[in-house]
Amino acid sequence: MIAVIDYDAGNIRSVEHALAALKLPAVVTRDPAVIGKADKVILPGVGAFGDAMDKLNNYGLTDVIREAVAAGKPFLGICLGLQLMFDESEETPGVKGLSLLPGKIVRIPEGGGRKIPHIGWNDLSFPKKGRLFEGIPEGSYVYFVHSYYLEAQNESDVAATTEYGAHIHAAVEHGNIFACQFHPEKSGDVGLRILKNFGDL
C-alpha cells in the first residue's frame, strides 16, 4: 500500500487519481500510524517551501517521513515534495528542509525571454538511468510547474536533468529515495510509467 501524505499541498488528488488509474493501492493520509504501516510513501506538493515545512511540522509528519526513509521504504517526492527533501530553499531563507539528501533549492534565473514560473513540457536527459525511468526513452517530455529548482550536492544522486535557463536537476535517486521536480501525474503515458515503476519497486 502506498501512503500519499496529505498536508494541504495542492496536487494530492491528481496523484491519487493517477495511482487509481494504475490500480495501485493507495491511501491519502496525514496519520503517522498509517504512514508508518505503508509499504511506500509519496510526498506530493505545490506551493511555497516555508509554508509547506510549517504544515509538515504542525501535522507532526517530519519524524514519520524520516522514519519511513530510514526503514528503507521507497519514498517519492513530487514537485514541492522534491524540494522539501533537501536542505534549504532560496524561496524561504532560514527555513530548514527535511535534509533527506544534501542540496539546495534555487530560483530559476530571469532573462532570455523565459517565463517564470516555468510551466510546460520539457525533455529529460538521463545522466544515470534510474529505476524510476525503466522503459522510458531519453528525450521523453514531462510537465513542469515551478519557479525554483534543485542543485543537488552529489551529482551521483541525479537521475534526470532538463534545461530551462539553468541545468536543472529534474529527478533524483539514492537508494530508496526518489524525487521528481516535474509532475508525473500530469505527464501522460510517460508519467504513468514513472508512477508504475515506483509502484513496482
Shape: globular
Proper CATH architecture: 3-Layer(aba) Sandwich
Q: How far apart are the first and last residues' alpha carbons, in Å?
A: 12 Å
Low-confidence stretches: none
Rg is 15 Å
The largest pleated sheet is described as:
7 strands, mixed
Helix share of residues? 25-40%
For the record, the count of structural domains works out to 1
Reconstruct the topology from this structure.
Blueprint lengths: L1 E4 L6 H10 L4 E4 L2 H6 L2 E4 L5 H10 L3 H9 L4 E4 L1 H5 L3 E2 L13 E5 L10 E6 L17 E6 L1 E5 L5 E6 L3 E8 L2 E4 L7 H12 L2
Parallel strand pairs: 1-2, 1-3, 3-4, 4-12, 5-6
Antiparallel strand pairs: 6-9, 7-8, 10-11, 11-12
Quick tags:
single chain, seven-stranded mixed beta sheet, three-stranded mixed beta sheet, alpha/beta, Rossmann fold, 201 residues
What does this structure look like?
The protein has a single domain (2-199), classed as Class I glutamine amidotransferase (GATase) domain (Rossmann fold). It is built from six helices and twelve strands. It has helices at 12-21, 32-37, 49-58, 62-70, 80-84, 188-199, and strands at 2-5, 26-29, 40-43, 75-78, 88-89, 103-107, 118-123, 141-146, 148-152, 158-163, 167-174, 177-180. The protein is globular, with a radius of gyration of 15 Å. The model has no long low-confidence stretch (mean pLDDT 95).
